[in-house]
Design a protein that fits this description.
Blueprint: E1 12-14, E2 17-18, H1 31-37, E3 50-53, E4 56-59, E5 64-65, H2 72-75, E6 81-84, H3 97-109, E7 114-119, H4 122-129, E8 134-137, E9 151-154, E10 160-166, H5 169-180, E11 186-191, E12 217-218, E13 224-227, E14 234-237, E15 243-246, H6 259-272, E16 275-278, H7 286-290
Parallel strand pairs: 1-6, 6-7, 7-10, 10-11, 11-15, 15-16
Antiparallel strand pairs: 2-5, 3-4, 8-9, 12-13, 13-14
Length: 306
């Protein structure tokens, strides 16, 4: 947890839950997994969350609720952007709904902040958020203000952004549809590390209750969808992405990112009016990460956030 974060697209990190499981190629060089296995391996919030496999350490799948940090955002009076569970996944399959309830309770009680929830499991996020038409959170979590009351609010919370991590077209295809069908004030994608080209303009989409057809498609950047055979199609407007973050991998073993992959996403975002944030190039050395092409030095935030 850090009240001031070095991550360029946020202000602070908050880790009420730590621990995870590798689910795709983007997890291979996970910085949080590396820290849990080295510098933080004896910290109570990380101890035992990784294990050795051959010559490397990986997540065990165990997750941990860090009670001592749960009410931290309530202590921060100045509003800020907060990256939620930077060293875990709020919607990991081993995180009980009760823990998620408690995290959302804190976010609901801290409207001065903007919370950025990033997950590789948007299908679990969608299921959780659609379970009820509104929010009714019960929590007996001790805090500086005493036990939290029952909280009832309409969904979505205006200060909670929901995002999913992708690294290539396969993960984009698998995760973005679930993200778009989950209720959220702002929806975003973090394409970091970007390991291959990604097209956000063309996804398979079929209206509920209808048979799929090869010409069904939707655009994740505009929300426009075309359904059915081209001889008898209809167009609909649905939810869309509000923000796309792109970056290469850093640190030992960093895999390359071609700048044209980032340029393609930038061009599509600009054409659709979607905020684009380029974080860094790939490379194992600091000098490599500083070599950002001039045309990719773009750091836009959705809805005028800064």
């Amino acid at each position: 947890m850090a009240e001031i974060s070095k991550i360029e697209w946020t202000d602070a990190t908050w880790n009420p839950i730590t621990g995870c499981t590798m689910v795709s190629a983007g997890c291979t060089n996970c910085y949080a997994m590396g820290l849990a296995a080295t510098r933080l391996r004896h910290h109570p919030s990380r101890e035992g969350l990784t294990r050795m496999t051959g010559s490397r350490a990986v997540w065990t799948g165990e997750v941990r609720l860090n009670e001592q940090w749960l009410d931290q955002p309530l202590r921060w009076k100045r509003g800020r952007m907060i990256f939620v569970c930077a060293h875990g996944d709020l919607f990991h399959e081993n995180v009980p709904d009760e823990w998620i309830d408690r995290v959302f309770a804190v976010m609901a009680l801290a409207p001065q902040h903007t919370f950025q929830v990033l997950t590789k499991r948007p299908e679990r996020a969608r299921a959780y958020l659609l379970a009820n038409p509104g929010i009714r959170i019960r929590s007996q979590m001790p805090s500086i203000a005493g036990p939290l009351p029952v909280i009832e609010m309409d969904w979505p919370l205006p200060n909670v952004w929901l995002g999913t991590s992708i690294e290539d077209q396969a993960t984009a295809d698998g995760r973005i549809p679930d993200l778009l069908s989950a209720p959220a004030a702002v929806r975003f994608v973090s394409a970091e590390p970007l390991l291959g080209p990604v097209n956000l303009n063309n996804f398979k989409a079929t209206p509920e209750g209808e048979k799929p057809h090869e010409s069904d498609m939707f655009n994740a950047l505009t929300g426009l969808a075309v359904y059915g055979p081209l001889t008898n199609f209809k167009i609909g407007q649905g939810p869309k992405l509000d923000w796309v973050i792109v970056g290469g991998e850093s640190g030992p073993g960093a895999r390359p990112m071609h700048p044209d992959w980032a340029r393609s996403l930038r061009d599509h975002c600009q054409a659709a009016g979607v905020a684009f944030f380029f974080k860094q190039m790939s490379g194992a050395r600091k000098a490599d990460l500083q070599a950002i092409p001039d045309d990719l030095i773009i750091r836009e935030m959705p809805y005028g956030q800064s």
